[in-house]
Known about the structure:
Blueprint: H1 2-39, E1 49-52, E2 55-58, E3 66-71, E4 79-85, E5 88-94, E6 101-104, E7 110-121, E8 124-135, H2 158-167, H3 172-186, E9 188-189, H4 191-196, H5 205-211, E10 213-214, H6 216-228, E11 234-241, E12 244-253, E13 256-260, H7 262-265, E14 275-280
Parallel strand pairs: 9-10
Antiparallel strand pairs: 1-2, 2-3, 3-6, 4-5, 4-7, 7-8, 11-12, 11-14, 12-13
Helix pairs in contact: 1-2, 2-6, 3-6, 5-6
Amino acid sequence: MERQVINRLHRTAVYLVTALVLIMLAGAFFYMRTRSGENARWPEEGSWVQYSGLLAADLSNTSQGYFMAWASQPTSQRLKLRVVFNGTNLDYDLPGDGTSIVVPLQMGSGSYQVLLYENVSGKKYAEAGSLWLDAWLDREDIAFLYPNQYVDYTELSAAVEQADALCAGKSNMDAFQAVCSFMKSGFVYDFVKALTVKAGTLPDIDGSYEKRMGVCQDLSAIMCCMLRTQGIPSRLVIGYADDNYHAWTVTDVDGEEVFFDPTAELSAISRVKTYSVERFY
Length: 281
């Protein structure tokens, strides 16, 4: 009888220990996912949709620093979307098949004009839609916490998962430094792509991450992706490094703007004296 009691107590103890271990593992997993789970932001469709000619735009989330745009009717002609803010023009390719794109309101709060142009012949375009939107952002850097056409990633992107693993439990500055170190040690510059890439090619986060190589805009977009999903606003900046057309990042770490050029850190560009900003996403 005593032996049976002892055996029961032993089995009970084993069950309790096993349950405790499982709870601890589940807690550890939750802790590791906390940064992305709490801080990653994803574009959402809404109900406030405006139409003008071929242009359709979902303006439901302008306070979050973005809107969605698509062609209201399929067309085989090339489409260009232009966003105008205080005299600054920002152009985007819009698919003609009705696929939507996420367009950032990276210039901050204010009035934006959105114009759609359709290719009519050769290099000639005609206006195919126009609307205005007034955006009052919840915070002025909120556009740099979401994916968009230039910093394009999803919840399934490998770079997002890697960022979660790198940054779990870290402060914003430690997370930023961890991502910087990862970019320097985990990637190489794609010199072949640099010589063959066509003008207008968008950054490729998923493809470049898989190959662990890319050109300046790919590497900078990957870094922005990893930081944004951790709740750290990061800009993909395009402009000139001396006389070279180039891309780099500027990140807001606890109120301090921190510059980082992944390409320069890989010694794939000559030492730069002057960076000149043309646009950012």
